[in-house]
Amino acid sequence: MPLRKTRDFAFSTLLAAALLPLAAAGALAQEAKPREAVVMVTGEGHSSIAPDMAIVTLAVVKQSKTARDALDENSKAMGAVLATLKDAGIAERDLQTSRFSIQPQYNYPNNNKGQPQPPELVGYQATNSLSVRIRDLSKLGSIIDQSVTLGINQGGDIQFTNDKPEEALTAARKDAVADALAKAKTLTDAAGVKLGRVIEISENSIRPAPQPVFRAAMMKDAAAPAVPVQGGENTYDVTVNVTYAIDQ
Hints:
By secondary structure, this protein is α+β, with helices and mostly antiparallel strands. It folds into two domains: about 35-50 and about 165-225 and about 235-248, 2-Layer Sandwich (Translation Initiation Factor IF3), CATH 3.30.110; about 55-160, Protein of unknown function (DUF541), domain 2 (Alpha-Beta Plaits, 2-Layer Sandwich), CATH 3.30.70. Helices cover about 40% and strands about 35% of the residues. It is built from five helices and seven strands. It has helices spanning about 5-30, 65-85, 140-150, 165-190, 215-220, and strands at about 40-50, 55-65, 95-105, 120-135, 155-160, 195-205, 235-245. Strands 3-4-2-5 form a four-stranded antiparallel sheet. Strands 1-7-6 form a three-stranded antiparallel sheet. The longest helix is centred in the N-terminal third of the chain and has 30 residues, at about 5-30. It is elongated and about 85 Å long.
């Protein structure tokens, strides 16, 4: 190896060896740095508003000896329901098939000794479920009534919701942050320290769950002028987790 390169290599080696203790000392100093004192709190906020839309599940279930007959009967009833919904002002975008099936139906007999026998095919069941968004809640009861009259014989829950809940969520967020701040101040005042800056904040929002009122409504007399339905209020809940620094 040339003399100059040998000297450069030796110098680099010595320099690295000299800097190594400094780097180690810096790492130890960093590890020894005291952890920042913090206070962690959870705040809750709530905001209630009246719903402006309902999502309803309407289903037609028909049984017959053959799959063809079950499907034809089902399609006839659902077609009448769809026509009525459109006449009532329900837009195409608010009508969506949520489930469709044709299932064989069996009978499971026992012999005279009570022993199970091979299943017997007794017919077919056709199910067609429709999800409907109703934006005019004043029509909700009459739409349910007309649908049952036309062949709807099974239904899910009504979900009362809001088309644009952002304003309610914003109010709930503000309440949640204010609640977290109040809790943090209470804790720091009690500990005799000062509340510092926000270090971290996270949110968890909960939208209203479906309200199961339609199942009960289906049991009412379909000949009634309109099924009585109450929308009540939707409550939007927001939880925030906030970490504050503690000023020494």
